[in-house]
Write a structure and sequence with these properties.
Blueprint lengths: L10 H5 L7 H10 L1 E5 L4 E3 L7 E7 L2 E7 L2 E8 L4 E2 L2 H6 L6 E4 L3 E7 H10 L1 H27 L2 H12 L8 H7 L2 H8 L3 H22 L1
Helix pairs in contact: 4-5, 8-9
């Protein structure tokens, strides 16, 4: 069940999430992409350094984090098929304000900004694709802001488990917590590790009871 996230996504699948792009755009993007192996805990984008690429997650699990005054805040998680880049770098040529690092051994495609801009000038589909991705990111940020400012810690955890891991065919709570270290989930949810441990025990109890009722 958990191996679902380890099934590699093709570039065609990633580009076709929002609409069906032209064959020319897909082939040119495939030709521009270079495959990179990322070892667990390695950075693919580092805070304070100008990012040069769009990152297409072929398979694996990543987290997006920001460090301030020695405290690291996990902001987002990315699974197979997700795309990431630094808007500060792509739009303004400034250092990234976030880091992207692997939670487990992963594989990504990198496509440089210069190649992306060439594709945008050559393919109308590329413009549509980028607009769709940016709109999706803005929608996700708005949704996260509302959820994190109007819901309880337990509700935030339930939403995290439901939304972020729905592509894993709804694994058990125990399986999900085996994927992502508790400290990262606590940081993402803006709660203490102690609060998360308490909520985790509560949800594991409910999960076990639900399994018994199915027997």
């Amino acid at each position: 069940m958990l191996n679902e996230r380890h099934i590699p996504h093709t570039m065609r699948q990633i580009l076709s999430r929002q609409f069906t792009p032209s064959e020319g755009f897909i082939k040119d993007m495939e030709a521009a992409a270079r495959l990179v192996q990322v070892v667990k805990n390695d950075y693919i984008v580092r805070q304070g350094v100008v990012c040069d690429d769009f990152v297409f997650n072929r398979k694996g699990l990543f987290r997006v984090c920001h460090e301030h005054d020695g405290i690291e805040d996990t902001f987002l998680f990315g699974t197979s098929g997700d795309i990431f880049t630094s808007m500060h770098s792509f739009y303004a040529g400034k250092p990234s304000v976030f880091s992207l690092l692997a939670v487990e051994d992963s594989e990504v495609w990198l496509v440089s900004y210069s190649q992306i801009r060439n594709l945008l000038s050559q393919h109308e589909d590329a413009v549509r694709w980028l607009m769709s991705e940016l709109l999706e990111q803005m929608y996700a940020l708005e949704t996260r802001y509302v959820a994190f400012n109007s819901k309880s810690a337990e509700e935030r955890l339930e939403n995290f488990l439901k939304i972020r891991f729905e592509m894993l065919r709804k694994p058990s709570v125990k399986d999900i917590f085996s994927i992502v270290p508790l400290k990262y989930i606590a940081s993402y949810l803006r709660i203490t590790p102690e609060t998360l441990s308490r909520l985790r025990r509560k949800m594991l109890y409910k999960d076990r009871n639900a399994s018994k009722n199915l027997d």
